[in-house]
Amino acid sequence: MAFWRKLIAPLFCCIIFIVIFISLKNSWIVVRDITPGPEYGLLLFLLPGLLTGLIYRDSPIFSSLIGALISVPVCTALRMVFYPRVRPLVQEVAYATSAIFWCVLGAMLIQLLFTAYKQFRQHR
Description:
mainly alpha
């Protein structure tokens, strides 16, 4: 069962990452109304990391990193084919890097919560 979790966790992270990307680009999830401004939608990329951390507790950070790295080329290809290119390539790379960061941060938060809970249980 642990072997399947090693394979399923990054794949699941990849799928959720791509779904969030498509939802943000199609404006199914509207985070802000003004066009030039901060990208609050990047915070939604915490979800793949959080869910990956819940599925595979042994190494959630590595699993979410692998899942995000696998999904970035897919998202970039979708962006080039289906969506109009309004940003330079450097900004697209920065967006993808930020999305990877938030995904891994979600896994780190889950690992922090599990570690804090274990420490609380030991000292109780």
